[in-house]
Design a protein that fits this description.
Order of helices and strands: HHHHHHHEE
Mean pLDDT: 85
Helix content: 40-55%
Strand order of the largest sheet: 1-2
Largest sheet: 2 strands, antiparallel
Number of strands: 2
Shape: globular
Length: 170
Amino acid sequence: MTLTDTSNGTFELVVQYLHTGKFILPANIRDSVETVTQLLDFAVLTDVLLIPNAHTAIGERLTSLLKPFTNGNANTRLPLHTEHLANALGLPEGHPIRVLIVQACVFMYLRSIHRLQKFKFEKELREIDGFAADMFCEVDKVMRLKGKNRGLVFAGEVWVCPMTGEQGRL
């Protein structure tokens, strides 16, 4: 087996995880975008190698990294890029990391519906296989959590983040 699409750093994370059940990201990672890239590469490789439960540790790290960007603060920029979505959506349907990355986009998507901000991944909704379907499922969860009486989340209202389960204001 050859791992031509895998960096040495990602492979080292797998070896670390296999030996200790934990992983430490390299110290030379400069920002949250690079951290997301490293974590998603790690998630993809552990999925390919069928390493059980690695997604739990990766998901915890991603959640703590992305949480500040999903809490209703419109002034923060989600550190996700197109390649992150493509990587995550390359994971099997329903994979916890795939779901988490889509959930991280829900707040931004809901704000775009109310024209409070432009949805950063509008083009990707059309172009990345499965993204629109996954987004619909996550938005549907938010609408159902909102309440039985009305299914819409209006600007300024409290909503429940599907990624963290915490309430935020749209």
